Amino acid sequence: MNEEHPIIKIEALGKIFSGSDGDFAALEDINLEIRSGEIFGIIGMSGAGKSTLVRCINFLERPTVGTVYFDGQNLSDLTKRELYHIRQSIGMIFQQFNLLMQRNVLGNVCFPLEIAGVDKKEAVEKAKKLLSLVGLTDKTYSYPSQLSGGQKQRVAIARALATNPKVLLCDEATSALDPATTRDVLMLLKDINKRLGITIVIITHEMRVIEEICNRVAIIDSSRIAEVGRVENIFTRPKTSAARRLVFPEDRSMENLPGKRCCRIVFDGNSSFEPVIAGMVLDFRQTVNILFADTKNIDGKAFGQIVIQLPDNELTADRMMEYLRAKNLTVEEVDGYV
Amino acid sequence: MFDPDVLTMLGRGLMESLYMTLVSTALAYLFGLPLGITMVVTDKEGIYPRETLNWILGLVINLLRSVPFLILLVMVIPITRAIVGTTIGTNATIVPLVIAAAPFIARLVESSLKEVDKGVIEAAQSMGASSMQVITKVLLPEARPSLIMGGAIAVTTILSYSAMAGFVAGGGLGDIAIRYGYHRYQTDIMLVTVALLVIIVQVLQELGMKLARIGDKRK
Ligand SMILES: Nc1ncnc2c1ncn2[C@@H]1O[C@H](COP(=O)(O)OP(=O)(O)OP(=O)(O)O)[C@@H](O)[C@H]1O
Ligand SMILES: [Mg+2]
Fold first, then answer.
1. pLDDT band of B17, cuts 50, 70, 90
2. Binary contact (B128, A94; C-beta < 8 A)
3. CB within 8 Å: B127 and A111
4. Minimal Cα–Cα distance from B117 to chain A, Å?
5. Atom of ligand 1 nearest to the CA of A205
6. Which among A60, A102, A104 has the least Cβ separation from residue B142?
7. Given Cys at both, which of A210, A221, B45, B82 links A226, Cβ 3.0 to 4.6 Å?
8. Across the interface, do B127 and A96 touch by the CB < 8 Å criterion?
9. Chain A partners of B136 at a C-beta cutoff of 8 Å?
10. Helical pair B4-41 and B51-66, crossing angle rounded to 10 deg
11. Would you tell me which CATH number, out of the four given (3.40.1000.70, 1.10.3720.10, 3.40.50.10790, 3.40.50.11290), belongs to the domain B4-215?
12. What topology is assigned to A6-246 in CATH?
C-alpha cells in the first residue's frame, strides 16, 4: 500500500442538473483524495449526492466544474476512446446488481472482457478463476434469475474484477441485502482489497458498513463534503452536525444540548444492560439521557455500547462513572458527542 | 364447388399471402429495426441523446402511422410503379406493406428496447462499452424475448394488411376473398379464405410466443 499516492483526486468538483424547474446543484466544491490501496467510504443521507459523486469518478456523469484525476490522469483531457479504456481500470457494482438477465453467470463475468476485446477462451478462463474467488463455481451456468441477492452481488463483483481494475466503486452495494449477507459481501470486499490490493470506494447510507471495513470516510451532506477522516476519529469525535446525525441517527435533541459530559459504556457480555442503568438511576436518584445505544442481547448478556449524557453536577457525573466501572464495565468519557 | 381449380387457386393464394407477408416483414424490419433503435438511443434519456433528430423521426413515424392502410395503398402507387414496374400483384403489394409496417415496427422495437433496465446499460458503460457495444451487446440481447413477441405482432399485422391489398388486386388470400365473396357472392370460398387467414395468424402468434418464452432466461 502506498499511503501517499492518491489513485483518485477530485478537485473543486461541482455538478449542476438543469431541469425544467431550474438548476439544482447536486454537488458543490468537492475536494477529495482517495489513496491507493485504501477502503474509502462515502456516507450521507438519501439525496445528499453520493451516487452523483461516484458517477463523476468514472465520468458516467460529467462534472459541471472541477477536475477528476484517475491515477494522475485528468479525465477531462481524455478522448471518448481513452475514457472507455480507462473505465476498464475502474470496476463498479450497484445496489440492484445490474446483471444481464439473458446471460448466465459465466456470460456475465465474461462480458467486460468481451467489451475489452479479450479472446473468448482467455475470457472464459479468467471468468472461472474469478467465480472461484467469489465462491460461486457451482453457479457458473445458472442464470441471474436463479440466484439470491448475495449471490448476484458476488457475480457482479467477479464481473467488476474481470478487467483487473485498480479501483472498485461500490454504490450502495449492500443496501438490498440482509445483515448477514451484507457482512459476507463486505468481508469479500475486504479480502479482495487485501489480496489484490484494489482500492475500494464504498458509498452507503449505513454507518455500520463504514465501521465494518473502511479505513477513511467522507461525510457528504446536502451536496458538500462535511468531514473527511479516519473512521475511528469520525466515529468517536464527529465534528460537524452532519456527522453526528449519521453517527447517532436516533438522537435529535443533541444539537440543542451543548457542553454536557457524556460517557460511552461498552458491554462485552459480562453484565446485562438494563439492570445496570436502571440500578444506577435508582441509586443516584438522577436520570441520564441515553444518546445512542447499539446493543444486542445474547443469552441475557449484553454486547455492544451505549452513550449516555451525564447529569450537570460534576460530582454526580464522576461518581456515576465510578459506579459503572465498579460493575466491571469499560467506561470512557467522550467529548465530541454534544 | 371445391373442384381442383378452386383448390389450386386457394393453394396459390395461400402461398402468395405467405410470400407477401414474410418478404414484407423482413424488409420492414430492415428499416424499422434501425429506426426503432435510433429512437431509443437518441431519446433525451438515451445513451446518445439527439433531441432534434429524435423529434423529427418521431414525427415521420407518427405521420406514416396515421395514414389508413387503404389510403396509403393508393397514395404510394407512383412509388410502387417506380420500384416494381407494376401496381398489381404480390410484388406491387410489398411496397405499401413495407412503408406501412416499418414505422409500426419501429415503435414495437422502441417499446421493447425501452424495457431494458437502465442500470444494466449503466453497468455496461461503467465497463467502458461504447454506444455501439451497448446496442449490440446489451439492448438487443436483453430485449430479445420482447423483440420476438413484437415480431409475432408485426407479422400477423402485416398479414392482415396484405389481405386488404385484395381491394387493389394485390394477390393472395385477401384478393380471393374479395373477388369471390364480395364481387360474386360466393360466400363459401370467402369463408374458407378467412378461415385460412385465421389459422395462419394463430400459428404465427403461437410460434412467436413460444420462441419468446424459450429464449427468456428471466423465468
Ligand atoms: N439526472 C438527474 N437529473 C436531475 N437531478 C438529479 C439527477 N440525478 C440526481 N439528481 C438529484 O441530485 C441529488 C443527489 O442525487 P444522488 O442520486 O446523487 O443522491 P444519493 O446521495 O445517491 O441518494 P440515495 O441514497 O437516495 O441514493 C438528488 O436530489 C437528485 O434528485
Ligand atoms: Mg444513490
1. very high
2. no
3. yes
4. 8
5. 25
6. A102
7. A221
8. no
9. none
10. 160
11. 1.10.3720.10
12. Rossmann fold (3.40.50)
Q: What is the CA radius of gyration of chain A?
A: 23
Q: Ligand 1 pocket, A48 CB below 6 A?
A: yes
Using one digit for the tens of pLDDT, what is the confidence trace for A161-191?
999 999 999 999 999 999 999 999 999 999 9
The domains of chain B are located at: 4-215
Nearest to B127 by CA among A72, A159, A99, A158: A159
- B126/A146 touch (CB, cutoff 8 Å), yes or no: no
**Whole-prediction pTM:** 0.82
Query: Which of chain A's residues have a Cβ under 8 Å away from the Cβ of B218?
Result: 101-102, 143, 145
CA distance B213 to A12: 51
Size of interface A-B (CB pairs under 8 A): 81
- The answer to whether the CB of B203 falls within 8 A of the CB of B193 is no
Q: Which residues in A lie closer than 8 A to residue B144 (C-beta atoms)?
A: 102
Q: How far apart are CA A221 and CA A259, in angstroms?
A: 24
Q: Is residue B187 classed exposed, middle or buried when 0-12, 13-18 and 19+ CB atoms within 10 A define those classes?
A: exposed
Amino acid A281: pLDDT:
81
pLDDT of B72 over the 50 cut = yes
pLDDT digits (tens, 9 = 90+) for B177-217: 888 888 888 888 888 998 999 999 999 999 999 999 998 98
